[in-house]
Amino acid sequence: MLYPLARSLLFRLDPETAHTLSLQALDRAARCGLVSPGQVIHTRPRTVMGLNFANPLGIAAGLDKNATCIAGLGALGVGFIEVGTVTPRPQNGNPRPRVFRLPEVEGLINRLGFNNHGVDALVEMVKERNYDGVLGINLGKNFDTPLEQAAADYLAGLRRVAPYADYVTINISSPNTQNLRQLQGNDTLPPLLRALHDERQRLEQTRGRPLPIAIKIAPDLNESALDDIARILVEEKMDAVIATNTTLSRDDITGQPHAQEAGGLSGAPLHARSVEVVSHLARTLSGALPIIGVGGITSASRAQAMLEAGASLIQVYTGLIYRGPPLIEEILATDRP
Fold first, then answer.
1. Rounded Cα gap, residues 324 and 207, in angstroms
2. Which of 37, 72, 171, 296 has the largest CB neighbor count within 10 A?
3. Residue closest to 304 by CA, chosen among 328, 273, 334
4. Nearest alpha carbon to residue 19 among 29, 32, 6, 35
């Protein structure tokens, strides 16, 4: 088991530096043939959003914002990879430091703020993909785009990535772009989704195949808000809901170092709430829309809990930082032929 040793070295570095070095090392290993890129593991295959997934486990958005490590991440055997969040124009994100580890509880707080190289740079990377799993691209708006003009940013991103994405995710739930979560409201969400659906229909004529759209929501919504969102997603003909993004709650990390840092909390402390949201959505939607569950999946048992709560697919991010590739192996080993 090499990852515990690697982790001990990486955790001596600033979290962002460690993250960048890890992705670079994994990508180089794949490109040099030290690991085989694109070897998707076939276990518990399923069809979701009209797409065929070799297995239900994927990489969540945020891990590979700029699509620089598709080959390396694909070598882990996951059924799908979601890259981004990407914005129409490049942006630096919030000032550093902006990522904080909470190792005692396997948590992470980040206030990155959609730092990325822009959608044009991401598309150039995606063109070179060497991965036969499903590829999703997560879209956001630029920080300086007024909220009332947010649809223009999402539409611009959708047009740019449509030829290359298997599905697209609309991120309206990051806590690190000012007022972004207001787009989840009853007055703002329907017109945004209607514009996306109309543009998607036009783009599908060019690409010659469906373009599924998933909407990523926050864990900090009450049951009434979840019910409203579920209804709107069905009415506006969206294809999936991703639950959940990071949380602003600090209830489960009281007394931990960095607990009061601003930003979204991910990892193990988020798991119970994410499962709760997935379970509520599953009851509300009654199969009308598939759910992609993400939040605090740090073990095979937690992955199974998310699936049993009603998720059709699951994603990992922070768990991979703490557990490394063995986490992927552990989850996919369950019922493997």
1. 36
2. 296
3. 334
4. 6
Report d(CA 180, CA 314) in Å as an integer: 24
Amino acid letter, 273 = R
* Residue carrying the six token digits 């009415």: 235
How far, CA to CA in Å, does 336 sit from each of 56, 169, 205, 330? 12, 29, 38, 10
**Residue with the two structure tokens 């960095």:** 258
Please name the amino acid found at residue 220. D
CA separation (Å) from 234 to 123, 239, 279?
Answer: 29, 8, 17
Please identify every residue annotated as catalytic: 174
CA atoms of 9 and 253, how far apart (whole Å): 25
* Cβ proximity of 64 and 30 under 8 Å: no
Decide: 51 and 166 in contact? Cβ < 8 Å. yes
Average pLDDT over residues 225-239: 98
Q: Name the band, by pLDDT with cuts 50, 70 and 90, for residue 30.
A: confident
Please name each of the domains of the chain with its CATH number. Answer: 3-332 (3.20.20.70)
User: Can you give the pTM of this predicted structure?
Assistant: 0.96
Confidence (pLDDT) at 33: 65
CA angle 68, 72, 75 (to 5 degrees): 145
- Residue 246, classed as helix, strand or coil, is coil
Average pLDDT over residues 158-184: 97
Residues 6+ apart with CB under 8 A from 239: 49, 50, 167, 212, 213, 214, 289, 290
Distance between CA 127 and CA 4 in Å, rounded? 34
**Residue 216 has which token pair?**
């990523």
Sorted by sequence, the CB contacts under 8 Å of residue 183 that are 6+ apart come out as 147, 150, 172, 189, 192
